[in-house]
Amino acid sequence: MSAHVKSEPNPMTIEAFLAWEGEGDTRHELVDGQIVAMSPPSRVHSRVTANLAARLENRLRPPCMVLVEAGIHPPERDDIYYQADLAIDCTPLTPDGREGTNPLVIVEILSPTTKSHDRGVKLADYRTIPSVQAILLVSSVACHVEYWRRDGAGWRVLDLIGRHTRLRLDPLELEVTLDEIYAGLDWLG
Fold first, then answer.
1. What is the pTM of this model?
2. How far apart are CA 115 and CA 146, in angstroms?
Protein backbone atom coordinates (compact mmCIF):
# COMPACT_ATOMS: atom_id res chain seq x y z
CA MET A 1 0.00 0.00 0.00
CA SER A 2 1.40 3.40 -0.88
CA ALA A 3 1.38 6.71 0.95
CA HIS A 4 -1.72 8.78 1.56
CA VAL A 5 -3.00 10.51 -1.56
CA LYS A 6 -5.07 13.16 0.13
CA SER A 7 -4.44 14.41 3.65
CA GLU A 8 -7.41 16.13 5.20
CA PRO A 9 -7.19 18.24 8.36
CA ASN A 10 -10.63 16.83 9.16
CA PRO A 11 -11.10 13.12 8.55
CA MET A 12 -13.19 12.20 5.52
CA THR A 13 -16.38 10.19 6.06
CA ILE A 14 -17.41 7.11 4.12
CA GLU A 15 -20.18 9.12 2.45
CA ALA A 16 -17.71 11.76 1.24
CA PHE A 17 -15.23 9.05 0.18
CA LEU A 18 -17.84 7.23 -1.92
CA ALA A 19 -18.81 10.54 -3.56
CA TRP A 20 -15.15 11.39 -4.28
CA GLU A 21 -14.27 10.83 -7.94
CA GLY A 22 -10.82 9.36 -7.31
CA GLU A 23 -7.82 9.54 -9.57
CA GLY A 24 -8.01 7.50 -12.76
CA ASP A 25 -7.91 3.74 -12.38
CA THR A 26 -6.11 3.76 -9.02
CA ARG A 27 -7.96 1.88 -6.28
CA HIS A 28 -8.28 3.62 -2.94
CA GLU A 29 -9.28 2.84 0.63
CA LEU A 30 -10.36 5.13 3.43
CA VAL A 31 -8.22 4.50 6.52
CA ASP A 32 -8.82 6.59 9.63
CA GLY A 33 -10.47 9.26 7.50
CA GLN A 34 -7.56 9.51 5.05
CA ILE A 35 -7.58 8.39 1.41
CA VAL A 36 -4.90 5.79 0.73
CA ALA A 37 -3.90 4.64 -2.77
CA MET A 38 -3.50 0.91 -3.25
CA SER A 39 -0.67 -0.51 -5.34
CA PRO A 40 -1.74 -2.46 -8.42
CA PRO A 41 -1.87 -6.20 -7.73
CA SER A 42 0.82 -8.48 -9.14
CA ARG A 43 -0.09 -11.06 -11.76
CA VAL A 44 0.24 -13.82 -9.14
CA HIS A 45 -2.10 -11.91 -6.83
CA SER A 46 -4.59 -11.48 -9.68
CA ARG A 47 -4.39 -15.17 -10.62
CA VAL A 48 -5.01 -16.35 -7.04
CA THR A 49 -7.94 -13.93 -6.76
CA ALA A 50 -9.46 -15.13 -10.05
CA ASN A 51 -8.98 -18.81 -9.18
CA LEU A 52 -10.63 -18.44 -5.80
CA ALA A 53 -13.47 -16.26 -7.10
CA ALA A 54 -14.30 -18.75 -9.87
CA ARG A 55 -14.20 -21.80 -7.59
CA LEU A 56 -16.33 -20.19 -4.90
CA GLU A 57 -18.88 -18.65 -7.29
CA ASN A 58 -19.46 -22.01 -8.99
CA ARG A 59 -20.26 -23.64 -5.65
CA LEU A 60 -22.53 -20.98 -4.13
CA ARG A 61 -26.30 -21.12 -4.12
CA PRO A 62 -28.30 -17.91 -4.78
CA PRO A 63 -28.70 -15.38 -3.35
CA CYS A 64 -25.08 -15.83 -2.20
CA MET A 65 -22.44 -14.35 -4.51
CA VAL A 66 -18.76 -13.54 -4.72
CA LEU A 67 -17.95 -9.83 -4.79
CA VAL A 68 -14.58 -8.74 -6.21
CA GLU A 69 -12.97 -5.63 -4.70
CA ALA A 70 -15.77 -5.60 -2.17
CA GLY A 71 -16.31 -2.44 -0.17
CA ILE A 72 -16.14 -3.32 3.51
CA HIS A 73 -16.53 -1.11 6.55
CA PRO A 74 -16.55 -2.02 10.23
CA PRO A 75 -19.63 -1.10 12.26
CA GLU A 76 -19.52 2.01 14.37
CA ARG A 77 -16.79 3.51 12.15
CA ASP A 78 -17.51 6.25 9.64
CA ASP A 79 -13.85 6.73 8.69
CA ILE A 80 -12.88 3.28 7.34
CA TYR A 81 -13.78 1.75 4.00
CA TYR A 82 -11.62 -1.12 2.79
CA GLN A 83 -11.46 -2.80 -0.61
CA ALA A 84 -11.27 -6.50 0.22
CA ASP A 85 -10.01 -8.69 -2.62
CA LEU A 86 -13.12 -10.89 -2.35
CA ALA A 87 -16.18 -11.22 -0.16
CA ILE A 88 -19.10 -13.60 -0.11
CA ASP A 89 -22.39 -11.91 0.61
CA CYS A 90 -25.88 -13.42 0.64
CA THR A 91 -27.75 -10.11 0.56
CA PRO A 92 -29.61 -9.51 -2.73
CA LEU A 93 -28.22 -6.68 -4.85
CA THR A 94 -30.14 -3.41 -5.13
CA PRO A 95 -30.46 -1.36 -8.34
CA ASP A 96 -28.25 1.51 -7.12
CA GLY A 97 -25.35 -0.83 -6.36
CA ARG A 98 -24.22 1.27 -3.40
CA GLU A 99 -25.91 -0.78 -0.71
CA GLY A 100 -24.05 -1.80 2.38
CA THR A 101 -22.67 -5.29 2.50
CA ASN A 102 -23.22 -8.02 5.02
CA PRO A 103 -20.29 -10.23 4.16
CA LEU A 104 -20.20 -13.78 5.50
CA VAL A 105 -16.66 -14.38 4.23
CA ILE A 106 -13.89 -11.86 3.53
CA VAL A 107 -10.76 -12.78 1.56
CA GLU A 108 -7.51 -10.87 1.41
CA ILE A 109 -4.70 -12.04 -0.87
CA LEU A 110 -1.52 -11.23 1.03
CA SER A 111 1.16 -9.47 -0.99
CA PRO A 112 4.62 -8.81 0.44
CA THR A 113 3.88 -5.07 0.58
CA THR A 114 0.39 -5.34 2.17
CA LYS A 115 0.53 -8.42 4.41
CA SER A 116 1.31 -6.49 7.61
CA HIS A 117 -1.60 -4.12 7.09
CA ASP A 118 -3.98 -6.91 5.98
CA ARG A 119 -3.02 -9.27 8.82
CA GLY A 120 -2.82 -6.54 11.47
CA VAL A 121 -5.18 -3.62 10.94
CA LYS A 122 -7.73 -5.05 8.51
CA LEU A 123 -8.08 -8.45 10.21
CA ALA A 124 -8.85 -6.81 13.55
CA ASP A 125 -11.45 -4.55 11.92
CA TYR A 126 -13.03 -7.38 9.91
CA ARG A 127 -13.52 -9.42 13.08
CA THR A 128 -15.78 -6.65 14.50
CA ILE A 129 -18.33 -7.07 11.69
CA PRO A 130 -21.20 -9.18 13.09
CA SER A 131 -22.11 -10.86 9.78
CA VAL A 132 -18.55 -12.11 9.13
CA GLN A 133 -18.19 -15.81 9.89
CA ALA A 134 -14.87 -16.48 8.13
CA ILE A 135 -11.82 -14.55 6.99
CA LEU A 136 -9.26 -16.00 4.60
CA LEU A 137 -5.74 -14.61 4.41
CA VAL A 138 -4.30 -16.20 1.28
CA SER A 139 -0.57 -16.03 0.58
CA SER A 140 0.63 -14.94 -2.86
CA VAL A 141 4.14 -16.33 -2.29
CA ALA A 142 3.42 -19.83 -0.89
CA CYS A 143 0.65 -22.42 -0.91
CA HIS A 144 -0.74 -21.26 2.44
CA VAL A 145 -4.11 -20.01 3.72
CA GLU A 146 -4.89 -18.70 7.20
CA TYR A 147 -8.54 -19.55 7.84
CA TRP A 148 -10.08 -17.43 10.62
CA ARG A 149 -13.41 -18.90 11.70
CA ARG A 150 -15.88 -17.38 14.16
CA ASP A 151 -16.40 -19.71 17.10
CA GLY A 152 -19.07 -18.35 19.43
CA ALA A 153 -17.75 -15.12 20.92
CA GLY A 154 -14.20 -15.81 19.73
CA TRP A 155 -12.21 -16.85 16.70
CA ARG A 156 -10.23 -19.96 15.73
CA VAL A 157 -7.46 -19.93 13.17
CA LEU A 158 -6.43 -22.85 11.01
CA ASP A 159 -3.18 -22.85 9.05
CA LEU A 160 -3.80 -24.67 5.79
CA ILE A 161 -0.61 -25.64 3.99
CA GLY A 162 -0.05 -27.83 0.94
CA ARG A 163 -1.79 -28.28 -2.36
CA HIS A 164 -3.95 -31.25 -1.34
CA THR A 165 -5.30 -29.53 1.76
CA ARG A 166 -9.06 -28.91 1.73
CA LEU A 167 -10.60 -25.67 2.85
CA ARG A 168 -14.16 -26.13 4.10
CA LEU A 169 -16.11 -22.91 4.55
CA ASP A 170 -18.54 -24.08 7.21
CA PRO A 171 -20.99 -21.18 7.03
CA LEU A 172 -21.65 -22.01 3.36
CA GLU A 173 -21.01 -25.75 3.41
CA LEU A 174 -18.60 -25.64 0.49
CA GLU A 175 -15.08 -26.90 -0.08
CA VAL A 176 -12.15 -25.92 -2.24
CA THR A 177 -8.64 -27.37 -2.31
CA LEU A 178 -5.55 -25.25 -2.13
CA ASP A 179 -4.56 -26.84 -5.45
CA GLU A 180 -7.63 -25.15 -6.99
CA ILE A 181 -6.74 -21.81 -5.39
CA TYR A 182 -3.18 -22.00 -6.70
CA ALA A 183 -4.00 -23.53 -10.13
CA GLY A 184 -1.51 -22.42 -12.76
CA LEU A 185 1.07 -21.52 -10.13
CA ASP A 186 2.78 -24.90 -9.79
CA TRP A 187 6.08 -23.32 -8.74
CA LEU A 188 4.50 -22.00 -5.51
CA GLY A 189 5.31 -24.49 -2.75
1. 0.90
2. 12
